[in-house]
Design a protein that fits this description.
By secondary structure, the protein is α/β, with parallel strands linked by helices. Helices cover 35% and strands 20% of the residues. It contains eleven helices and 14 strands. It has a ten-stranded mixed beta sheet with strand order 3-4-5-6-9-10-11-12-13-14. Helix 6 packs parallel to helix 8. The structure holds iron/sulfur cluster (SF4). Iron/sulfur cluster binds next to loops.
Amino acid sequence: MTSKTHALELFPRDVEAIVADLGMPEYACKQILNWTYDKNVESVDQMSNIRKEYREQLEQRLYFRDSNVVTTKHASDGTKKILLAWDEENKQTECVMIPSKSRCTACVSSQVGCPVGCTFCASGLDGLEGNLEVGQIVEQVIRLGADQITNIVFMGMGEPLANYDAVTRAIRILNAPWGLGIGARKITVSTVGLPTAIERLTKFDLPVTLALSLHAPTDTLRKQLIPWAKFASIEDILKSCSTYFDATGREITIEYLLLGGVNDRSAQAKELADLCKTLRCNVNLIRYNEVPGLDFKRPENAQVRRFQETLEKGGVNSHIRASRGRDISAACGQLRREQQHITLEESS
Ligand code: SF4
């Protein structure tokens, strides 16, 4: 017996193969893709223009949702955060929808937990539990409301370039006209910097935006904050980012999480400016959202402004990213940890 496939991982050629296998007319391929990616059906039964006998056979081949919604939180600023549980092992990940005046961004996870273990992050505290599959990555966007989403960022749980094959296949589906039709430039892959994978992404034919989570201007401090920093120096990572810019023409986004008293001093801004001048990039400054149980502090607003002024004096463009959804455990992985904590308390 053929095992069931997640419909949200299918390319047209995969649907064509199923259609041929079941002896369905060729035009059914377009119908199935349309129901799956455009109308976002949750079962074959909803495909009302497909004959019942074919629907019964398709039912044996496809499923459309792999997650249960554990909880949905709405923030006062419109941000929505969903905690999803995958399969019977109850692995959980988070995804977030962030609406603004001009866009609506879906922040999705690529892994369950995270292998990188950044010392300031709730997602990395328990290590990696597994990779998300292609259909599971796309499903997050559908769960958030695909008809509203204009931009996608791989900035949820996990290191997307450590799940390269699934993430790039999901990006093809998110981008394709027969899929969700989101422009490649509106899709951002955020990484802690894996030079080999960045060079591989250089050969990927969709010019997505590359965001580098730098968070420190020196290798010494970076290794204290990001354990995987030991695998590659800032110099090597920036070289691979330059290669990415040369190949795609896409300016690199440098993500810099400001941690009060740790990496937010003016001298560090000066060091960051010197690094940024070696690259075509813009800098996003992000104020830390405190995580219960972790010692890091949100920086003072005045210090954030001083940091930005120093960057500007150094000739580097930067934006202070607005903190969104602070009233709903906005820090990555925080909702999942809270939920697991509640479940543990309930069962003890
Ligand atoms: S900040 Fe990102 S890379 Fe670091 S542990 Fe958290 S999810 Fe992983």
